[in-house]
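Hello,

I think I submitted the NAP job twice by accident. Can you confirm which output corresponds to this input? Input:
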Amino acid sequence: MSLVMSGRELAASIRSETTALAAELTAAGRTPTLAVVTATDDEASAWYVRSLARTAAKVGIACDVTDLGPASPSRPESPEAVVESIRVELIALSENPLVHGIVLQTPLPGGARLADLASLIDPAKDVDGANPTSLGRLMTGLPAFAPATAAAVLALLDHYEVALSGRRAVVVGRSAVVGKPVAQLLLARDATVTVCHSRTVGLAAVTSTAEVLVVAAGRAGLVGTSFVAAGAVVVDVGTNAVADGGLAGDVDPAVAEVAGALSPVPGGVGPVTTALLLRHVVSAAGGV
Ligand code: NAP
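Support: Only one job matched these inputs. Its output is below.
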């Protein structure tokens, strides 16, 4: 059996550091504040926002949620009007000195693109690295907030002291939220990185070359034992709702028989992502 790369212990240690820094900032009259803008009735998304707000409160971060979703009384009539309201809100929050971090929750209404709207978030407050400017800065090695999920993958690998320099890394998924920034962060750590996607031919043959394999495809059980080299380190980012109401990863749990290490779902990347997002808020508020 492979090593289980749980994220719970790491998340707890990030939260306790965040709590201490948030308390210092609050004592200095600068309560770290996160604003979340959401405009969906997607249940998974709503669950995530509630959980983020609860965790923020526990670490001493104020969390203000602007809900423009269908259930909200202040919901504008048309999808276009909702998108316009999101624009107005993001501009106002970016200019508000009392707000330090801004998250625009997906999915978005009316076919709106995250990159278009997130470009209105002040990069200094872009704690989930959604503004194309943040991603561009990441690509060019300039300081920026990385998307929290991508940062969580690297934090988990570091926590388990997985060497990256010179190693063959394969990332499955090329979204701007996970796949591309993870590939970039691995590259910045001198791994040799291959990125796969839905048009990749012979996926298993490519993933089998990986010493470090990161899977973020959103397809439950996509990666089975024949996709993984013996002893590889596998990070499963996927979170797929399953029939019994639970969560399944993109990696078949049987991969644990082949891999050297595997992150579980739930309890792997997820808790670290939330903890790092809140850590970013404290940094944006002027903490270290
Ligand atoms: P996404 O935007 O849907 O992107 C999925 C990527 O996977 C795309 O690049 C797609 O390729 C690729 N893909 C889909 N099917 C594939 C297949 N059969 N073979 C190879 N590649 C395939 O999803 P995302 O936002 O990146 O999220 C990915 C997963 O991570 C989801 O399960 C999501 O719920 C989860 N997630 C978890 C966290 C966390 O904190 N744990 C945070 C964010 C996301 P194309 O580009 O060719 O379409």
